[in-house]
Amino acid sequence: MPGWPLWRGGRLWETESMTWEGPKPISRVVEGLSRLPGIGPKTAQRLTYYLLRASREQVGELADALRDLKDNVKLCSTCFNISDQDPCHICTNPRRDQSTICVVEEPLDLVAIERTARFGGVYHVLHGAISPMDGIGPDELRIRPLISRLGPGTKVQEVILATNPNLEGDATAMYITKLVEPLGIKITRLARGLPIGGDLEYADEITLGNAFAGRS
Amino acid sequence: MPGWPLWRGGRLWETESMTWEGPKPISRVVEGLSRLPGIGPKTAQRLTYYLLRASREQVGELADALRDLKDNVKLCSTCFNISDQDPCHICTNPRRDQSTICVVEEPLDLVAIERTARFGGVYHVLHGAISPMDGIGPDELRIRPLISRLGPGTKVQEVILATNPNLEGDATAMYITKLVEPLGIKITRLARGLPIGGDLEYADEITLGNAFAGRS
């Protein structure tokens, strides 16, 4: 192998506008993408080089959409879902049943429920769950506005607690139950049992235990 | 489970500005991201909701970087590497050895070689490999400009063929060899053998066979 004496003195690539990833415009995108969760530097690089070959329209559209995301998305002041209008499309939809509120932790939980097409009521997004370990108490969540929605003159007849089936979700559901019970409004929780398509043999013991307890 | 009679008539979520993914600004980003290779709709959604919570600066920086990528990246007219200037940083770097050209298929191959910090010469990027199956012949690649770089009065003394160690890469290397040999310039190829950190037991038979043939 030939030696490159001049090169041995230092790193050739480390000039002001050139890094491992290549020229500045490229390393900027690599860096931006690799800050996203689950995207490492290798994937970020692969995506960037893909974008380099993609059409100007595709890349421009993505850039515009990102700008738009920050400029045009707000929280619905009623249900605290993410929306481009306030109140949101679900809260203002006359075909949604205003007497049933489904309480979820995150906007993505709402999306998952909408996808089932099995729920026709409205939502309330807490934006988290009670987690003393992470320093998140009831006041960090949108619990107070939920209680306000259930005050005097409310149309709400049922609150479905659809928090996650884990420690934090259960604690949150319990906390809300204590606040809502005195108001005389029906409270339900999502059923727990075996997931469809699952194999009994591979179900964890808690899921299987819940499935026994909830048999009908 | 209560029935939502009004809702049973149609899909509640399918209004003009609301899709499965949520309001329009969100679904635009989800759509844009899910068009990237290796990013499915679920990942795109997760990334989008992450971006919603990210700082305005972070999202703005990514959007700007994407714009910049298309506006400020060009091909070096000498080596055809991707760069923000022409000729590129490597071709104009006085510390690079202009007498050795390393021929690679893609810009990312160049990045991989730069990362080894073991090569101090210059490059030539073919932008692909000969692949009759995909309708890519020598004329679709930057082979002609490579030959021009080796013409009368050239300083080049060695051409390292660093095409991929597969059928297409080998065909491309063979084709270039035939063109360069008559010019009396030294041609070398990257060594083939066992990858470092690999286990002999798990090496495929072709790699192992190459390692035997190339023993020294």
Write structural notes for this entry.
The structure is a homodimer of 216-residue chains. Chain A is of the alpha/beta class and 216 residues long. Chain A folds into two domains: 6-72, RecR Domain 1 (Helicase, Ruva Protein, domain 3); 82-191, Dna Topoisomerase Vi A Subunit, Chain: A, domain 2, CATH 3.40.1360. Chain A has eight helices and eight strands, in the order αββαααβββαβαβαβα. The first copy, chain A, has helices at 5-8, 24-34, 41-53, 56-72, 107-116, 143-149, 167-180, 205-213, and strands at 18-19, 22-23, 74-75, 82-83, 97-104, 121-125, 158-161, 186-189. A four-stranded parallel sheet of chain A has the order 6-5-7-8. In chain A, β3 and β4 form a beta hairpin. In chain A, α2 (24-34) packs across α3 (41-53). The termini of chain A are far apart. At the A-B interface, α1, β2, α2, α3 and α4 of A face α1, β2, α2, α3 and α4 of B.
Which sequence of SSEs, written as H and E, runs from N to C of chain A? Answer: HEEHHHEEEHEHEHEH
Shape of chain A: globular
| Secondary structural class of chain A | alpha/beta
Q: Point out poorly predicted stretches of chain A.
A: 5-17
Order of strands across the biggest sheet of chain A? 6-5-7-8
Beta strand % of chain A: 5-15%
Helical percent range of chain A?
25-40%
Tally of extended strands of chain A? 8
- What oligomeric state do these chains adopt? homodimer
Largest interface: A-B, 80 and 80 residues
Q: Enumerate how many helices of chain A there are, as a single number.
A: 8
The rounded Rg of chain A comes to 25 Å
* CATH class category name of the largest domain in chain A: Alpha Beta
The figure for the number of domains of chain A is 2
How widely separated are the two ends of chain A? 76 Å
CATH topology of the largest domain in chain A: Dna Topoisomerase Vi A Subunit, Chain: A, domain 2
The major beta sheet of chain A can be summarized as:
4 strands, parallel
**What is the architecture of the largest domain in chain A at the second tier of CATH?**
3-Layer(aba) Sandwich
